[in-house]
What does this fold into?
Amino acid sequence: MLDEPVTRLSGVGPAAAKQLAALGVRSVRDLLEHYPRRYADAGEVVDLAAVEVGQPATLVGEVIDAHVRPIAPKGRGRRDIAELTVRQAGGGVFRVSFFNQRWMADRLAPGTVAAFSGKVGEFRGQLQLASPKVEVLGHVRAGRSAEEAAEELKHQRLLPIYPATGALPSDRIRAFVATALEAVGALGDWLDPALREREGLVELDTALRLIHLPEHWDDVTRARARLVFDELLVLQLGLQWRRRRLEDGMLGLDNAPTDAGLGARLIDALPFTPTGAQRRAFDGIAADLALERPMHRLLQGDVGSGKTLVALWTMLAAVDRGRQAALMAPTELLAEQHLRTLTTLLAPLGVNAPGGVRIELLTSSTTAAQRRRILDDLAGGDVDLVVGTHALIEDGVRFRGLGVVVIDEQHRFGVSQRVALKDKTNAEGDAGTAAADARDVLPDVLVMTATPIPRSLALTVYGDLDVTVLDELPPGRTPVRTTLLDPASSDRRERLYDHIRRQAGIGLRAYVVCPLVEAGESGATSAVEHHRHLAEDVFPDLTVELVHGRLRADDKESAMRRFREGEAQVLVATTVIEVGVDVPEATTMVIEDAERFGLSQLHQLRGRVGRGADVSDCALMASQPLDELTEDARARLEAMVATTDGFALAATDLDLRGAGQLFGRRQSGLPDLKLARIDRDLDVIGRTRDLARDVVAADPRHEDPAHATMHGEVVRRFADDLEGLEALETG
Ligand code: ADP
Ligand code: MG
It folds into this structure.
C-alpha cells in the first residue's frame, strides 16, 4: 500500500494526483511523509486590543456571520463585498471582507474555523482584515452552545498546515493524509524495539499519526523526535555502509611522507611559513597517508586559507613513493588556475625540468595530439602530477600508479566519480608492497571545499569523511571593506566607477559580477549587456573584458589572461569566477543584483578580492531599494556587510535557509532531510553518527540478519538517485 500511487486512496482521482505530483507527492508513502509546515492553534487568542492597525497579523477564529453586500456601482459592472464576522476562541470579534469575491461568503459559512492573514485595518471602529489569505482549519457544528463550541475547538486545536499550492490548498491535503493514515492500517517499524526504547522514541506508526493529527504540542514534539532520528540515522548508516562497501576488499597505499621528501623540501623553500592550521592539517593527513586504509578526508577552509598548499603537499607524498597524484577541479577555469598555483609553488623544486616534478593539464580543451601524449606519459609513469576536470576520469585514462587524488569542491562532484577512481588504480605497478595479492588498490583521497560549513553540517553531509578544518588565515591579509548600495544612490555608483578608474591608474583591477549571461525575462542584469555598457559608456578609456560560461574555452582563457596580466583592468563576469580565480591585483568587486545571490555565493565572490597586500572593496548593488527587498535578501546582504568570517556567514545561511536547501539532494546525492534541521538537531546528529559507526563497524557488510530491516530502510531511502546504490545492494 505504501508504495502504491496516491490514486489507490478513495477520493484521490487523477486530477488530485496531478496536483499532488506538483508537490512531489506520488505514492501513499510520499503523502505520509508530506509533513505539516506548521500548525495553526485554533485556540490561540491574539489580544485584539494589542493588534496594531497597519501591521500584518494572523487571526484565528470561527465565522459567526457571512453575507454579501452590494455596493453602489460607480461605473459599469456589479460590485459587492463579502463580509464575515469572526469570533476568536476567547470571544473577541473582528471583521473580514473580500471585495468582488462573493463566493467567499459560501466557502466561509458560519461554523467555519479559519486563520486569516493580512494587514490589519479598521472599519467603523472594528478591526478588519481586507482580502486576507485564508486557511480553513475546520468546521464546528452549527446550533451548539458557546460551551459546546469551545469544547469542539479544543478537539481540533492544532491544525496541520501543509506545504500547498494554489490548486491544492492545505485543508484538502489534510483530508487526503487522513484517508491515507486510515488506509495503511498499522505500520511496521524498521527500528529495533530495544534501540527505540533506549532512545525514548515512539513507534513509527504513532509518530506518523501524531505528526499529522496532534492534539497537543507535546504530540508534535514526540512525533518529530522519532522522525528526525530516522532521517539522520538512515543518512549516517547509508554514508558509512557506502564507504565500507567502496573500501571493502580495497587496499590503501602507504604514502607516508618522509622527512627528506618533496613535501618537506617544498615547505623549506616557501617564501612564507605555514599557518598553525596548515601544520595541523599536514599532521592529520600524514597519519592517514600512512594507514593501510585509504584516506578519505575533507579539507575545508575559508577562501584564502591556503588549501592549495596542503593539497600539493599531500600529492607530493605520492610522488615521493614513485606514484602519481591527480587534482580534479569542477571547471576548466579552475583546473587552469590550479595548474598555475601549483607550478608557482613548485618552482623552487624545479617543474617540468630534468630532476624536477612533471606536471600536466588534462581538460576537454586539450588537443587530441597532446591528449595522446599525456595519456601515454601517465600510463608510463612519466607524469607525476596531473590537474584536470572530469576529463581525468574518462575512459582511456590510465595511471601507472595513482597514489593520491585531490578533489576540489566536492559538492559539484558526485559519489560516482569516486567510484570511478577505483578502476583507474588497477594499474598499480609497485613491486614489493602489500599489493602483491590480488586486491584492488584505492588511492588516498582528499576532498577540498571552500564552502565553510559548520562542523556539525560537515559531519552530516560528509558523514563518511574525516574532517580537517583550516580555521586560520595567513597573516597580513587586509579584510575586504563591504558596502551595500541601492539603485537610488546613483552618485555612489559614480563614485564607485571613479574609484575603479583611479585604482586602474595604479595597476589595480576590478571584477563586476552579473547574475545572467544574456538578458532574460527576469529583468536581471546581463553580463553581455553590462559589459557593453561599461566598455562603451563608463570606461571607454579602459579595457573591459567579459567571461561567462557560454564562451568558448580559449576565449574565456584569453580574457582571463588579459585581466590577470593587467592588459584589461575591468572584468565583467558571471559566477564562473566564483571559486579559485586568484588575481592579487584585483582589489574591487562589484556584484550587480546582489540580492539574487545566495550567501555562500556572495562570500565566494568577495573572496576573489583581498588576496594581495592592497586594501580591497566589495560593493553589493541591490536592484531594488533596500526596504523593498524580502526580509531574507536583506538579512543576507546585511550579514555580508557585518562580517568577512566565512564560518559566521555559513551559520547565518543555515539559519536563513535550513540545511536541506544548503545541500540539496541533487547536489549531494543524499536522501532528503524533511524534518531534521542541522542547526537545531545537533545532539541527534552526534548520537546517530555514533550509533551508525557502531553498527557498521560490527557489521560492515550488512550480513547480520538483525540488521536486515535497518539495511532495507537505508537502501530504500537512498534509492532514488544514489549513485553508489548498486554498491549497497550488491554487498
Ligand atoms: P584557498 O585555496 O584556501 O582559497 P590558496 O591556497 O589559493 O587559498 O591560498 C591563497 C594565497 O595565499 C595563495 O597565494 C598562497 O600562496 C598563499 N598562502 C598560502 N598559505 C600561506 C601562508 N601560510 N602564509 C602566507 N601566504 C600563504
Ligand atoms: Mg585555491
